[in-house]
Amino acid sequence: MYLTDIYIYPIKSLGGIRLNESVLEERGLKYDRRWMLVDKNGIFLTQRTLHQMALIQVELMAGGLNVFRKDDPETNILIPFEPKTKKLIPVAVWDDTVIGQLVDNSVSKWFTNQLNIDCDLVVMPESTQRKLNPKYAVNNESVSFADGMPYLLIGQASLDDLNTKLQNPVPMDRFRPNLVFSGGKAFEEDEWDKVKIGKSLFKITKPCARCVMTTIDQKTGIKGKEPLKTLAKYRTVSNKVMFGQNMSLLEGLTIRLGDTVSPQ
C-alpha cells in the first residue's frame, strides 16, 4: 500500500489543494484549515448551509493564498500569510470557542460579496490552543479549524467499493480527506490502530462521521442525495454514517506521494 494523494484545505470549507509532499504538524498538515470564514457573530461558515462555498478555490502561492472563483478565475484575491490586522475575536467551531485573528477588512469584503453574506476571514494564531476531545487525544494535542481531528485518511479501495453501488460514481473530493492510499481491501483502514506512512507514525483515533456536505458537487455547488443515501445503507454505526478514519500524529516531519503505508 502506498500514498497516492495529499490534500490540504487552507480555508475551511473552500476548495482543496493536492500536494506532492507536505510538512506534518500537530494540528494537521501545514496550512490545512488554518483560516476560516465566520459570520458577524463569529460562527463558522460551511458548505453545509452555503453550498456556493464549493465554487471558491484556494491556491498556495509563495507569499500567501490566491483565492478565486472556479467559474471565473479572474475574480480573485491574494491573501498574505501574515494577517494585516492585530484584531482578535472569539470564533466558534462546533462546540469550541477559540480566538481567531481577523485577516483584513478588504478580504472580508471580497468574501462578503462572493457569498452574499456578511462575513470575515480569520486565521488561527499560534497562541490559540484548540484542544482535542480528551477521549481521542493522545498527547493533549491541539487541532486547527478542522471539524474535530488533525488528519483524515481514506483508502481508495473504500471509495471504489462505494462507487460500485452508485448509479453515478463520485470523486474523492466529496469526502475531503488529507491522505489517500491505494492497495489493500475496501475499508481496511477501519481495522487499524496505528499506521506508518513513510517514516511517520499516526494513531487512528475514530471513524469519520459523514454529513450532507458529501452530497454537494464540488464542481457545481449543487446538492443531491448521494453518496450519503447509499452509504447509510451499509456504513451506519450508532446512527452515524462512517467513511474514513481520523488520526493524530505520533511522530514524523514530512510525507510525500509514493510513501509506503503500513498498519502497525
From TrEMBL:
One of its GO terms (molecular function) is catalytic activity. This is MOSC domain-containing protein. It comes from the Bacteria. PROSITE patterns: MOSC (PS51340). Residues 124-264 form the MOSC domain. Pfam families: MOSC, MOSC_N.
